[in-house]
Amino acid sequence: MPQRHPVTALASLPPGSSQAFTIAGRHIAFFNVAGRIHAIDDTCPHAGAPLSQGRLEGCVVTCPWHAIRFDVTTGRRPGQSDDTLTSYPVFINGDQIEVEV
Ligand code: FES
After folding, report:
1. Number of structural domains found in the chain
2. Which of 68-79 are b and which e, b meaning 16 or more Cβ less than 10 Å from the residue's Cβ?
3. 47 and 66 Cβ atoms separated by less than 8 Å
4. pLDDT reported for residue 80
5. DSSP letter at 50?
6. Ligand 1 within 6 A of 36 CB?
7. Is the pTM here over 0.90, yes or no?
8. Beta strands in 10-85 (DSSP E)
9. What's the CA-to-centroid distance between 37 and ligand 1, angstroms?
10. What is the pLDDT at residue 82?
11. Is 51 within 8 Å of 29 (Cβ atoms)?
């Protein structure tokens, strides 16, 4: 059964930034897209790069190793249905980010 977990202070993830945390044993990347927080698996399915270290443009992150792009709001590659990453529900509780895992 999924549970909510505290992640970090909302202020520590300003718009346009990303950061990874290990939550309930999963490496999860958090992205702030224009003030809204999104969470997907941090590990690129191609060869394991940390997507939280990729370049974020709008809602699309580019993998830092071989440039595959993922929509951080869905975990999908834009225009494709393969290599879908798990996306996680995010909640804001006061000034804290929480994620359901
Ligand atoms: S590891 Fe991400 S594109 Fe290769």
Report:
1. 1
2. bbbbbeebbbee
3. yes
4. 84
5. B
6. no
7. yes
8. 18-23, 26-33, 36-41, 55-57, 60-62, 69-71
9. 23
10. 74
11. yes
Is 45 close to ligand 1, i.e. is its CB under 6 Å away?
A: no
| CATH of residue 51 | 2.102.10.10
Containing structural domain, residue 51: 4-100
Q: Which residue is closest in CA terms to ligand 1's atom 3?
A: 66
* Intervals of the chain under pLDDT 70: 83
Own/partner contacts of 44-50, CB < 8 Å, gap of 24 or more, are 44/68, 44/70, 45/83, 45/85, 46/83, 50/20
| Per-residue pLDDT reduced to its tens digit, 52-73 | 999 999 999 999 999 999 999 9
Check if the beta carbon of residue 99 is closer than 8 Å to that of residue 23: yes
The amino acid that residue 70 corresponds to is: F
